[in-house]
Specification:
4% strand, 2 strands, 204 residues, mainly alpha
């Protein structure tokens, strides 16, 4: 495998483990320096990119460049929640209807179920890419969760009442919530992008 291909795959694998950009830069620099010095194939020297990324992640903790799994999950749940409800509230509030925004039973049930499905699928995909074992089991679980999530939406659309109001809120309030949620989502994404920006060590 060429060095460029190896470092590209390794970079992607390291990012999947939510390793900081600074530590990613150090790892990539170590690989590049070793290959340049020895001429050895990077796969022979370090193993497959995904396996080596897993080894690097196992050696780290939150203090040395890797976020905890719990932190990763909470961050994703927060971003997914802000994104889903932010765009929903923003779209609903744009009409600025004086009668307010009405949410029916179908709305109240379907939206949270969609959020749960998105989070579960994403978590299982993350585990399938990063776990040391049972990767295929996690990947299969992600497919099952995706199908179940889509099925739940179909059931909600078919059987739940979409006429009787359950919650009615002022349009301006819903629009404001949408804007606040979207700003929060973009702020969290920007922070994640800054944290993940690869920074190679300074050369003396």
């Amino acid at each position: 495998m060429t060095l460029d291909k190896y470092t590209d795959d390794l970079h992607k694998a390291l990012r999947f483990h939510e390793i900081s950009g600074e530590r990613v830069g150090e790892v990539l620099a170590e690989v590049e320096a070793h290959v340049a010095e020895t001429g050895e194939d990077p796969v022979d020297a370090f193993g497959k990119p995904r396996d080596y990324a897993r080894q690097v992640a196992a050696q780290l903790d939150p203090a040395t460049g890797k976020r905890s799994t719990g932190g990763i999950v909470l961050t994703f749940v927060a971003i997914a929640t802000l994104a889903l409800f932010g765009q929903t509230f923003f779209g609903d509030g744009l009409a600025l209807d004086e009668a307010g925004v009405v949410y029916t039973l179908r709305d109240v049930v379907a939206q949270p179920l969609l959020l749960v499905a998105v989070v579960v699928v994403a978590l299982l995909v993350y585990l399938a890419r990063t776990a040391s074992a049972s990767n295929k089991l996690y990947a299969g679980g992600a497919v099952v969760a995706l199908i179940a999530g889509l099925g739940a939406q179909v059931i909600c659309n078919k059987y739940l009442d979409d006429e009787t109001p359950v919650i009615t809120a002022p349009s301006r309030l819903i629009l404001t919530l949408g804007v606040v949620f979207l700003i929060g989502m973009f702020a969290m994404l920007a922070h994640s992008i800054r944290r993940g920006r690869v920074r190679y060590p300074n050369k003396n």
